[in-house]
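Both lines are retained for reference:
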Amino acid sequence: MLKADSLFVKAASRVERWAYNDAAHIIGMTQGVVDGILKVHSRKDRVSMIANAVDLEAFKPASAEQRLAARAALGLPMDRFTAVHVGNMSLTYDFEVILAAAAALPDVIFAFAGGGSQAGHLAEQVTVRKLDNVKLLGLLPHSKVPDVWAAGDISMISLADSSLADGTRPAKMYEAFAAGVPVVAAIRGEGAALLTEAGGGIAVPVGGHDEFVTAIRSLHADPSARERMSQAGRSYAVAHLSPDAVTSRYLTILEQVMPS
């Protein structure tokens, strides 16, 4: 690990400050990124936060028929309550929380789509713990990812307990909102605030094994709550995360900084 007083870090910090000072405007994709920029760049008027957009046509709520078709295509049980984890399986995430939930909820299907540095460990633990209700779908073409969202009754996010957790907005949360899939997330800081603001799911403490299980169990038992969260998440995505809305924010800044 690089030390703060190493020559490389000192040189990189100078380049960072030069780039910020030379920029007409700086955009961060999360408030955590913006806060980091403002620690070394004092011009708040030249720094903005614009979240990434999500494709509202590719990711949209599935009908009951589409859900069954997606499950059939992915080889998932047709009649079981299904929780999905979509995307990167990196060290950013704590899969122990999800594995513990899978062990505690054998009547729920836990489906994982994606790969990453923890994919091998996850597969090993599924075998060691004999978790027959866990389905590993592997890496899928991006065109197939909407099928995974369509197959899920709920989605799952579990962040690792690190300093990065406070400023993390998982991209998979944006897709879940757009697809109308309620989110159960072990998350804090900016991501938890976003989930609460959108009303698209339930936030529990990072590392909260029992709370994670309780949240899944409660949504399993309450279809009306799932429907409310589905509609709320989709509405938030349409209002704040559409390509048109995000493009408009970028154009507004460009119009402000471009010479007349």
Summary: The mean pLDDT is 94. The chain is about 50% helix and 15% strand.
